[in-house]
C-alpha cells in the first residue's frame, strides 16, 4: 500500500516541478532534463539508494537529454545524485539556522565520564541536579547538550558514537528526572575535538540557546 502513497507524492512533486519550469523567465533544458531524470530514478528505485547502478542512472538522464536535443553529459560523475542534493539542502538549511542571531548560556563539563564509558556517575548526576533549574529551557529556548570523546575503542565503538551516547544519556536524564520538554532538548556530538587530552575530551557541555529578538 505504501507504493500508492509514494506514487501520489512523486506525481505531486513532478507537477510542481512542471509548474515552476513553466513560470520561469529563462528555460534551461539541461535542468529540466535533470529534474525529469531524478523523478524517474526515484520512481524506479522506490526512493531507496543502492537499488540502481550509476550506469543505469546515467542512461536515464541521457535519455531525457536526448529528448531535448542535448548531448550526453560529458562527465556524469560530477552530477549530484538526487538523494545527495536533498541531504545537502538540509545541511545548508541547518547551517543557516545556526548562523541566525541568538544568545546562549554555555555551561561546560556538566557531566564527566570515565574513559570509554557513557554511564553517568553519581557525581555527574548530583551536578546535573544542581544545574537543572538554570538550564531548563523556557519558551523559544533550546538546550543543546554536546558530547565529547577521544577515548572510544575502535573494536567496540568509535569516538563519534561514544560522544553521541554521552550526549544522549545527559539528555535522557534531564527529560526523565527533571521533566524537561523533549522537543526543547537536543543531543549532539563533536566530530573533531579541539583539546588533545583531558576531561574536556570525555565530557558533555550544555548550551541554552535563546533566539535574538527581532527589531521592530
Quick tags:
216 residues; alpha+beta; 60s Ribosomal Protein L30, Chain: A; 2 domains; elongated
- Could you give me the name of the CATH homologous superfamily of the largest domain? OmpA-like domain
Beginning-to-end CA distance, first to last residue: 50 Å
Q: SSE string, helix = H, strand = E?
A: HHHHEHEHEE
CATH topology of the largest domain: 60s Ribosomal Protein L30, Chain: A
Helical proportion?
40-55%
What can be said about the biggest beta sheet? 4 strands, mixed
Please give the order of strands in the largest beta sheet.
Answer: 1-4-2-3
Q: How many DSSP helices?
A: 6
Structural class: alpha+beta
Instruction: Name the shape in a single word.
Output: elongated
- CATH level-two architecture of the largest domain: 2-Layer Sandwich
Uncertain runs are none
Give a short synopsis of this structure.
The protein contains six helices and four strands; from the N terminus they run ααααβαβαββ. With 216 residues, the protein is an alpha+beta fold.
Amino acid at each position: 500500500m505504501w507504493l500508492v502513497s509514494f506514487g501520489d507524492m512523486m506525481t505531486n512533486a513532478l507537477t510542481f516541478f512542471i509548474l515552476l519550469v513553466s513560470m520561469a523567465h529563462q528555460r534551461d533544458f539541461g535542468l529540466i532534463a535533470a529534474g525529469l531524470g531524478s523523478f524517474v530514478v526515484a520512481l524506479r528505485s522506490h526512493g531507496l539508494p543502492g537499488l540502481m547502478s550509476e550506469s543505469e542512472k546515467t542512461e536515464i538522464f541521457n535519455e531525457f537529454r536526448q529528448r531535448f536535443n542535448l548531448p550526453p553529459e560529458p562527465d556524469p560523475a560530477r552530477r549530484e545524485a538526487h538523494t545527495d542534493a536533498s541531504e545537502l539542502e538540509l545541511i545548508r538549511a541547518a547551517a543557516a539556522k545556526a548562523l541566525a542571531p541568538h544568545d546562549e548560556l554555555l555551561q561546560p563539563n556538566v557531566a564527566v565520564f570515565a574513559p570509554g564509558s557513557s554511564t553517568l556517575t553519581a557525581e555527574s548526576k548530583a551536578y546535573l541536579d544542581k544545574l537543572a533549574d538554570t538550564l531548563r529551557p523556557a519558551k523559544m529556548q533550546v538546550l543543546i547538550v554536546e558530547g565529547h570523546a577521544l577515548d572510544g575503542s575502535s573494536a567496540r565503538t568509535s569516538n563519534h558514537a561514544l560522544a553521541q551516547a554521552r550526549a544522549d544519556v545527559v539528555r535522557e536524564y534531564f527529560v526523565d528526572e527533571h521533566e524537561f520538554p523533549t522537543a526543547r532538548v537536543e543531543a549532539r556530538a563533536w566530530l573533531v575535538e579541539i583539546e588533545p587530552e583531558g576531561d574536556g575530551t570525555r565530557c558533555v557541555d550544555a548550551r541554552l540557546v535563546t533566539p535574538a529578538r527581532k527589531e521592530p
